[in-house]
Write a structure and sequence with these properties.
globular, 958 residues, 29-stranded mixed beta sheet, Rossmann fold, alpha/beta, five-stranded parallel beta sheet
């Protein structure tokens, strides 16, 4: 079939996105399998196990016995052992291609009685022994191409009684008699034995009985003798003899031997034209499809003229022959042709009457040539339905270019330097359904589609230079269902630009320069049946957080899919509260990479049918469960690389229908067991690339991920530990779960025993050593009193002036601002955890030592600080010291404005701030000198009592 490239790359991208979601949603009811992905449930009759590109060196263990498809391609497996696949009795399809397999043990497939397709292509097999294919009675398709096979046992294929297709191309058989076992299979219909080094092909070396073969591929063999002396191919329909590079002697004693061949490939044959004409005469009764590639201009034209004398010929392909021109006489015999393919030549000239005799032609490809205008010759093709003029040098379309082509259904004219289209160019194309006019130099579409295109359903004008869409550009295209305008320079769209497109289903405006002012509600009016809208990769942005006076999509009641991801350099910034108002039928929403740091709680109140949501590559570090409350039908949520630290927001979101949850490359440390209980229908969980905590908090999750049969956790065997530091980089699955299990019986025994022993010891001490214990108690009190007095009388010395408590997200401010000022200019000695903590020492001990060996503690407060576990512990220790020593040792520095209600979850912080003064980092337009002066005063202040602390000027209070 002629490759007309019916789908542009933009449309292909869109369908791939949809397909990727469908694939992910289809991976349901799986379970964890090391190095593999399971598609389908354990009880499914269509279960697939996908292990391709996993660096495997052996067949994975524990593949479910009910698996129907097993794909282990693109790995490093060198041997298939006898017991590797023994339990897979339900397997129908096995793909072992693109490995390093050198050895197959006899009987390796003996347990695969149900196997129907086996792919061993692109390996290193040398010999096919008699025991390879034991018990494969149901195998119908076998690929052994691109190996190093030089020998085939005479009994190798005997078990393959159902085999229909065999590919042995790209091996080293060299002599056709070595392939004789192949021709002995009773049901073989399609055989590929090209590129094997055969120097001859004779029926006496192949078989002496009639075969069922329908397709025979002998291409890329240096055949010198092709001799048919018996009627062994009565059913042959397709014969491929392409690229037989040595002059072949053609000896077919009876033309009737190829009486059913209707498809013939003679591309690249090194053979004299006279002999090729004799060869063609062998097929002059049934041949309908002839391919003549890579022959050169003169030979191709000569053979084409001869081939067209075959009355049955309807398809002629002459690609890549360096043809420069077509004259009137060269194709005059081709009166029965329906398909003519002249693509990828050097055509610059086609005479007016070149196609005059082709009264039946319906498909013509002239793509990838050097035509400077639409050939006048096509005006004689009144039956033409498909015309491909892509990849030429056409600059103008005139009113006469498509004259008389009233039956034309499809025109491809993309990849031409087209800059001008006369308004009447398409006036005769009343039946045209598809027009692709991509990658040209068009600056406008105004007036081009005013006549003749009333039945067009698919219009693509992508990768042009359009800067605006005018109101009347498409008003006559009332049958249009798909409109593609991506990769232009569109900045403005007139109100009502799409008015009248009642049947439009898909509108693609991605990768333009459209702003928020160009997507008003009036722009999308008149599109009652629009289902898919692509607005991604534009310049839509909202700086404020106010609602819109007129939501842009309020008229699109039928919209099913909308994509707005990746808006300009700065992103969309905000999705306003009523941005999606009117989209009551919306099911798929792509909103990734928009530079969002929050979502309004009302964002999805207008989209109750939403089932697939993608918010990836934003900055949603804190997100409320209220946002997801309206989405009762949400089945897929994707938030890849969004800075998420916890999934607890989903617990109260009540997402009972969620099946797919993809939260890759975030900062999640612990999976809450309550969350998994909440999302009861979860089928696939993808949390790869997170910062897992390898402690007992995740022990339950490891056990659940490996053993549950309802939810598949993708690549759980590759999860890495991030905390504690000494375990960083290890696998999460290597955590010793047994150490986290509490033995209740042993605990009760220890507690009871300890209580009994303590009671006995207390009784003993009271009875025998009562006064000695009392004396020791008072002696200890005296010791404490003496130490306290000594402490008051001596001046305390400190190792540091201040301990700096901060979150790693604020490290840049500490390193670039605080450290140079305090240590560099003011000369203070600071304690920083990454620099001054003692390696190998427990983190908590380092924190306590750092705080108590410093005169002051400076807490750098931000949203990240409040959410950090270690920062919480640091301020806890500092507050203990504050209340214990009753000294002014704590300095609070706020980097951000934090409303009081946001401090309410952090009780200790709020209680300290209510009683303490604090410093606030100035806004960008304010002077910082006062801040640094106040901080220096706070550090210089003596350790006065907590009750008598000074109040610094210009400090904030809560």
């Amino acid at each position: 079939m002629l490759n007309l490239k019916m789908i542009s790359s933009v449309q292909s991208t869109f369908f791939l996105l949809v397909l990727s979601y469908c694939v992910l949603l289809s991976l349901i009811d799986g379970y964890s399998l090391k190095k593999c992905t399971v598609k389908g449930s354990l009880n499914s009759t269509t279960m697939k196990v996908l292990c391709y590109k996993r660096q495997l060196r052996a067949v994975p263990e524990s593949v479910p016995s009910r698996a129907r498809v097993l794909d282990i391609s693109y790995n490093k497996i060198s041997v298939i052992k006898k017991n590797d696949l023994g339990d897979l009795t339900n397997l129908h399809n096995l793909n072992l291609s693109n490995n390093m397999i050198e050895e197959l043990e006899d009987g390796a497939f003996r347990g695969l009685a149900a196997l129907q397709e086996l792919n061993l292509a692109h390996n290193r097999l040398i010999t096919i022994s008699g025991g390879f294919f034991q018990n494969l009675f149901n195998l119908t398709l076998l690929r052994l191409n691109e190996n190093h096979i030089s020998n085939i046992s005479s009994s190798a294929f005997l078990p393959l009684i159902s085999l229909v297709m065999l590919n042995l191309s790209g091996n080293h058989l060299q002599y056709i008699h070595k392939a004789q076992p192949v021709f002995q299979m009773p049901r073989i219909q399609e055989l590929h034995i090209g590129k094997n080094g055969f120097s001859s092909f004779e029926t006496c070396q192949v078989s002496n009985t009639s075969l069922q073969l329908q397709v025979l591929d002998l291409s890329h063999n240096p055949v010198q003798l092709f001799k048919i002396t018996a009627d062994i191919f009565p059913h042959l329909e397709t014969l491929d003899l392409a690229f037989i590079n040595v002059g072949v002697k053609w000896d077919v004693q009876d033309k009737n031997y190829f009486r059913n061949v209707d498809r013939l490939n003679l591309s690249g044959i090194e053979m004299a034209p006279e002999k090729m004409k004799i060869m063609l005469q062998t097929f002059n009764s049934t041949l309908s499809n002839l391919r003549l590639y890579y022959l050169g201009e003169q030979k191709a034209k000569s053979l084409a003229k001869e081939a067209c004398l075959i009355n049955s010929l309807t398809t002629l392909r002459l690609q890549s022959n360096n043809i420069n021109s077509i004259s009137e006489n060269e194709l005059k015999n081709c009166s029965n042709l329906k398909v003519l393919d002249l693509a990828e030549n050097d055509l610059t000239k086609i005479t007016v009457l070149a196609f005059k005799s082709m009264s039946k032609l319906n498909t013509l490809s002239l793509s990838h040539n050097k035509l400077s205008n639409v050939p006048t010759a096509i005006r004689n093709l009144s039956t033409l339905e498909v015309l491909d003029l892509s990849y030429n040098s056409i600059t103008t379309l005139t009113c006469s270019d498509f004259t008389n082509l009233t039956q034309l259904l499809m025109v491809h004219i993309y990849r031409n330097p087209l800059s001008s289209v006369e308004h009447c160019a398409f006036q005769d194309l009343h039946n045209l359904k598809t027009l692709i006019i991509d990658s040209t130099a068009l600056y406008t579409l105004k007036g081009y589609f005013m006549s003749g295109l009333q039945n067009v359903t698919y219009l693509s004008s992508s990768r042009n230079k359009l800067s605006m869409i005018n109101r009347d550009d498409f008003k006559c295209l009332q049958s249009l269902t798909h409109l593609h305008l991506p990769d232009n320079q569109i900045k403005s769209i007139d109100a009502g630009a799409f008015q009248g497109l009642q049947k439009l289903d898909l509108l693609n405006l991605q990768s333009n320069k459209i702003t928020q002012t160009s997507i008003s509600a009036s722009v999308f009016s008149g599109l009652p049946n629009l289902k898919q809208l692509m607005l991604n990769n534009n310049c839509i942005s909202y700086s404020s957080q106010d609602s819109l006076s007129e939501p842009p999509f309020k008229h699109l009641k039928s919209l099913y899919i909308i994509a707005i991801y990746s808006q300009g350099n700065n992103g969309m910034k905000n999705i306003l509260s009523n941005f999606l108002e009117g989209l009551t039928s919306l099911k798929i929403f792509w909103a990734g990479n928009l530079n969002l740091n929050s979502l309004h709680p009302d964002t999805f109140t207008y989209t109750p049918e939403l089932s697939i949501l993608d918010l990836s590559k934003n900055y949603l570090t804190t997100i409320s469960s209220d946002i997801f409350m309206p989405l009762k039908k949400l089945s897929s949520l994707t938030m890849i690389q969004s800075g998420i630290q916890s999934l607890d927001f989903l617990i109260e979101a009540n997402l009972k229908e969620i099946q797919l949850l993809s939260i890759r490359k975030n900062s999640i440390a612990v999976i809450n067991e309550t969350l998994i209980d909440t999302v009861s229908k979860l089928s696939l969980l993808d949390i790869q690339g997170n910062e897992f905590s390898c402690d007992c908090d995740n022990a339950w999750f490891i056990d659940w991920a490996v053993n549950n049969n309802n939810t598949q956790v993708l690549k759980v065997d590759e999860f890495k530990c991030n905390y504690p530091p000494y375990f960083r980089g290890n696998r999460l699955l290597d955590l010793d779960k047994d150490s986290c299990v509490v033995d209740v019986g042993l605990l009760c025994f220890v507690c009871t025993t300890s209580f009994v022993l303590l009671t006995l010891l207390s009784s003993f001490l009271y009875h025998f050593l009562k006064w000695q214990v009392v004396y020791t108690y008072y002696l200890f009190l005296a010791f404490l009193y003496d130490k306290k007095q000594q402490k008051k009388q001596t001046l305390q010395s400190f190792q540091y002036d201040a301990f700096i408590s901060y979150n790693t997200h604020d490290e840049l401010w500490v390193m670039k601002k605080l450290l140079p000022k305090l240590e560099g200019e003011q000369g203070w000695r600071l304690c920083l955890h990454h620099r001054d903590f003692q390696p190998g020492k427990p983190i908590m001990d380092n924190i306590v030592d750092g705080i108590y060996s410093s005169r002051k503690t400076i807490c750098v407060i931000s949203h990240h600080y409040l959410e950090s576990e270690w920062c919480s512990r640091e301020i806890q220790v500092a507050s203990f010291r504050l209340f214990d020593e009753k000294k002014d040792v704590l300095i609070l520095v706020f980097l951000e404005e934090i409303p009081p209600h946001q401090l309410s979850p952090y009780y200790r912080m709020r209680s300290i701030i209510k009683k303490r003064t604090y410093l606030t980092w100035p806004k960008p337009e304010e002077d910082t000198d006062v801040f640094w002066q106040n901080l220096e005063v706070a550090l210089e202040a003596k350790d006065t009592s907590y009750e008598e602390r000074p109040i610094l000027s210009q400090l904030g209070r809560i």
